[in-house]
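Why should sequence recovery work at all? Because a backbone constrains its sequence more than one might expect. Tight turns favour small or flexible residues, buried strands favour hydrophobic ones, and helices have their own preferences. The token representation captures these environments compactly. In the example below, the structure is given first.
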């Protein structure tokens, strides 16, 4: 009888192990699809833990910044250095407002890259609390960042063509 219980336990453990392997395989496939989608859409994500001042960034964030990355965690000051100096206060203000009222926010701002090129990005901010196991919660902001430089250039060109003569570059008469 004891041998039967042991055999049943071994078969059950084997089934559990196979279920776990299948779940891990499905999770890896989903992660691969997500990473591919982020690459194609030029969109990354980040989490800012404002108690530690650290940010966890996806690979795509580093690609947008043209930043060589070795780890996925940077401090807020490194992140802020990529924000155009004229827009850093606006970015910080958006973070403070998101913390204060816990509402999702949207911001379009410029990045200054190491090559001194400028990119325009759209960012979304969302406040979150994660229970830490005790009564305290880990407070952080999740964000997404998308390169919209090409879209902004197209909008600027359309606006120009709508208001200026293409041949003479003079303003259109109304």
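From this structural description, the recovered sequence reads:
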């Amino acid at each position: 009888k004891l041998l039967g219980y042991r055999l049943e336990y071994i078969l059950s453990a084997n089934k559990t192990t196979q279920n776990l392997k299948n779940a891990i395989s499905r999770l890896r496939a989903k992660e691969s699809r997500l990473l591919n989608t982020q690459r194609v859409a030029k969109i990354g994500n980040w989490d800012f833990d404002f108690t530690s001042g650290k940010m966890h960034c996806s690979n795509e964030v580093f690609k947008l910044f043209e930043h060589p990355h070795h780890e996925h965690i940077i401090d807020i000051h490194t992140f802020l250095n990529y924000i155009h100096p004229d827009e850093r206060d606006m970015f910080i203000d958006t973070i403070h407002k998101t913390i204060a009222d816990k509402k999702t926010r949207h911001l379009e701002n410029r990045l200054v890259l190491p090559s001194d090129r400028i990119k325009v990005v759209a960012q979304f901010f969302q406040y979150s609390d994660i229970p830490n196991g005790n009564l305290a919660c880990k407070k952080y902001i999740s964000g997404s960042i998308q390169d919209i430089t090409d879209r902004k250039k197209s909008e600027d060109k359309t606006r120009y063509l709508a208001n200026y003569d293409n041949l003479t570059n003079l303003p259109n008469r109304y």
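A few observations help interpret the result. Strands lie at 43-49, 54-57, 73-75, 105-112, 118-131, 137-147.
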